[in-house]
């Protein structure tokens, strides 16, 4: 950790000790993971009391930004506010991006016993989801690679063609990460994470870039074939259709639909 980042964290810890709503300060992001540049901002989690968390949640006020505390040019603190229950749920059933957000996280200041132990349980690959995820991801590859891309080409649907290409790259990346038992960090860092995977189709990143820059139905089908040849998908096309419908069209039956479908 760069010294100026350490100073910023120490200064923030002293400041929040005066706030009765804050129980702990935890590092996050590039600083926590040991890959921060000198100019990087400092990502943190502030652990709040339950009452304060609920109050801020109800007013959509769970982000934290402090531009005054850093003593280096352009530096600032970028934080998210959570409570202990959030951390417990993240350790129990958090999404992969949420789990990844706690990679390398350390407690800087805390009034809570055993907080570091709880934090350490979060950035763990959820093995219990792996086989189901791989099956569901391959269903997406089947449909976008061989059905939707073809529909887009036949009907001149530029939006659908580009959507098919991005979904193929997304779920292709997810397959590679799951195969290697690596957490999916977020869309922004997907390709960076893919580069860390030891087992993957040769030329995946290069083919992904070619597909995204100028998608065609032939490129979509070729990309899908590459992924289907990487490992046994475990399902035929007919089952892929049902899985796709369950995950993309009927997901509202089990829980609130995603924002894209609300």
From TrEMBL:
Span of domain Polymerase nucleotidyl transferase: 10-66
Coiled coil: none
Annotated keywords: Transferase
One function term, GO molecular function aspect: nucleotidyltransferase activity
Any single Pfam family the record assigns to this protein: NTP_transf_2
Name of the protein this chain belongs to: Nucleotidyltransferase domain-containing protein
Taxonomy of the source species: Bacteria, Bacillati, Bacillota, Bacilli, Bacillales
InterPro entries, per database record: NT_sf (IPR043519), Polymerase_NTP_transf_dom (IPR002934)
């Amino acid at each position: 950790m760069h010294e100026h980042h350490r100073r910023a964290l120490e200064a923030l810890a002293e400041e929040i000790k005066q706030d009765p709503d804050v129980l702990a300060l935890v590092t996050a992001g590039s600083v926590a993971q040991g890959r921060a540049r000198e100019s990087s901002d400092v990502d943190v989690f502030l652990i709040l009391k339950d009452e304060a968390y609920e109050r801020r949640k109800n007013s959509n006020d769970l982000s934290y930004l402090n531009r005054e505390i850093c003593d280096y040019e352009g530096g600032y603190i970028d934080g998210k506010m959570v409570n202990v229950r959030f951390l417990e749920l993240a350790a129990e059933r958090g999404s992969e991006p949420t789990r990844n957000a706690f990679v390398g996280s350390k407690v800087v200041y805390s009034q809570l016993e055993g907080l570091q132990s709880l934090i350490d349980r979060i950035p763990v690959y959820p093995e219990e989801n792996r086989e189901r995820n791989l099956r569901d991801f391959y269903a997406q590859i089947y449909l976008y690679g061989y059905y939707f891309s073809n529909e887009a080409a036949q009907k001149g649907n530029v939006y659908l063609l580009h959507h098919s290409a991005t979904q193929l790259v997304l779920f292709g990346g997810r397959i590679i990460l799951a195969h290697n038992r690596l957490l999916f960090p977020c869309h922004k860092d997907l390709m960076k994470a893919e580069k860390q995977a030891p087992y993957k189709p040769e030329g995946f990143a290069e083919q992904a870039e070619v597909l995204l820059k100028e998608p065609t139905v032939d490129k979509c089908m070729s990309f899908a074939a590459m992924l289907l040849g990487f490992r046994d998908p475990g399902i035929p096309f007919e089952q892929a259709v049902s899985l796709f419908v369950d995950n993309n069209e009927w997901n509202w039956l089990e829980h609130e639909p995603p924002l894209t479908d609300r």
